[in-house]
Amino acid sequence: MRIVLKQFSDIALLRQNSKRRTILNKGEAGFTLLEMMIVLVIIAVIAGLVTVNVMGRPDEAKATTTKSNISSITGALKMYRLDNGAYPTSEQGLKALIEKPTAPPVPGGWAQGGYLSAPALDGWQKPYAYQSDGMTFTIRSLGRDGKPGGEGVDADIDGKG
Which of 51, 90, 136, 141 could make a disulfide contact with 157, Cβ separation 3.0–4.6 Å? Predict the structure, then answer.
């Protein structure tokens, strides 16, 4: 009998504590509508600033894309050299990364499927200039203006190896 009474008193105590927690939690409301609106306005302002800064600089984005592409092409050229002992010659060009060259020196270890999936174009959709003696190479984008030299987004972007 004592055990049963003890259990009933424990249950009553739990209910009483539960009611206290409920009363305490009622004072802790979530975010108010006004607070949520302020947060949404702040997010909208930040998104607007980011959009203006990013969308207002398409040529800078193209230059960044070009640098990233040159980095990828450089990696593909290094893989080509590891497989074949030399970089593609200037005559073979970057096309040697897509399909096996037939012009000498014909690579003996050319990877099935190639090293790039498509011809490489810079951010302004122009082909890269490629020069190589087989042991070193230079990849160059002539920038936005398509002319050697220049400054800012018109500057040449080079990759060497």
Answer: 141
